[in-house]
Design brief:
The chain is an alpha+beta fold and about 280 residues long. About 40% of the residues lie in helices and about 20% in strands. The longest helix has 19 residues, at about 205-220.
């Protein structure tokens, strides 16, 4: 398996939180936790993504827009699958998807279906040609970042003030409640709810709950000395933490910590090695 992250080009940092490449030598299946939006370019192989009782199968070459997920799921990929992907900031979602994040919550969809204005044939050809071996990584990343840059709709601009305040609030280790977000943004609770659904995919309460669990997940994956009892902070008690963690991550904290070879733990550990990755993308 080859799996690594690399820094986002400076010009794309407002829109992308991370860039990564994953190549699987053998078939793989794993849990999928809740996560922020991504765009994934399936260069080679087959990927099957499941949520609830629904499964969709995608075959290379394909560009997939993955909305914010508030439910756990699972993924299966075939041997030889090669994916280049990027996590999206809320501004990146706004500029690339051009629809409310709430509309795409818990959904993955071919980009062509959401952006019929884009000519994806040259992209698909470039992805197929660039998926020949390790020496082509640079070409693949150049293809992907160049395409994203050209596809972004920068006008009208997003609500930068709201996005910065909400992203900081979401990753605040003290996990302040929705009232704190209203105070930080300086707008009405109704406006906070509307903007949160548009940019983040659900109500402020749900975003708060998701990032509360994601912070515990990140701590368990990156801190070997992390003790579950020390992470109870924003929860009523340890039972509350365990129930919430299982519903958002797909397993109990104990299983997550014990199974350090799993893809989720490996992914979070790899992110932590990238200099200057925003905390929102590091955790989400």
């Amino acid at each position: 398996m080859r799996y690594y992250y690399r820094p986002v080009p400076e010009a794309l940092k407002p829109w992308l939180g991370s860039l990564y490449l994953m190549q699987m030598d053998h078939p793989m299946s794993d849990l999928v936790r809740v996560e922020i939006p991504h765009i994934r370019f399936l260069c080679r192989g087959i990927s099957a993504l499941s949520h609830d009782d629904s499964t969709r199968v995608y075959r290379a070459p394909e560009a997939l827009l993955c909305g914010p997920s508030f439910k756990t799921g699972s993924v299966r990929v075939s041997a030889g699958t090669l994916i280049v992907g990027a996590s999206l900031t809320p501004a990146g979602w706004h500029a690339l998807a051009a629809i409310s994040a709430e509309t795409m919550a818990n959904r993955k969809q071919p980009l062509a279906e959401l952006r019929p204005d884009l000519d994806l044939d040259p992209l698909r050809a470039a992805l197929s040609e660039g998926a020949e071996g390790p020496g082509d990584d640079e070409a693949l990343f150049a293809t992907v970042t160049g395409f994203i840059d050209s596809a972004l709709r920068r006008d009208p601009p997003p609500r930068w003030d709201f996005l910065r305040a909400t992203m900081d609030w979401a990753v605040d280790p003290d996990s302040p409640g929705v009232a704190a977000l209203v105070e930080r943004t300086g707008v009405s609770s109704r406006t906070v709810d509307r903007l949160c659904r548009h940019y983040f995919g659900d109500s402020p309460k749900q975003v708060h709950r998701v990032f509360r669990a994601l912070q515990v997940c990140h701590a368990l994956a990156t801190r070997r000395d992390a003790d579950i009892a020390d992470l109870i902070g924003p929860y009523c008690d340890q039972s509350h933490l365990i129930r919430d963690f299982k519903s958002r991550i797909g397993c109990t904290p104990e299983r997550f910590r014990r199974d350090r070879a799993g893809m989720m733990q490996h992914d979070l550990a790899l992110r932590a090695q990238v200099p200057d990755m925003p905390l929102y993308s590091l955790i989400g």
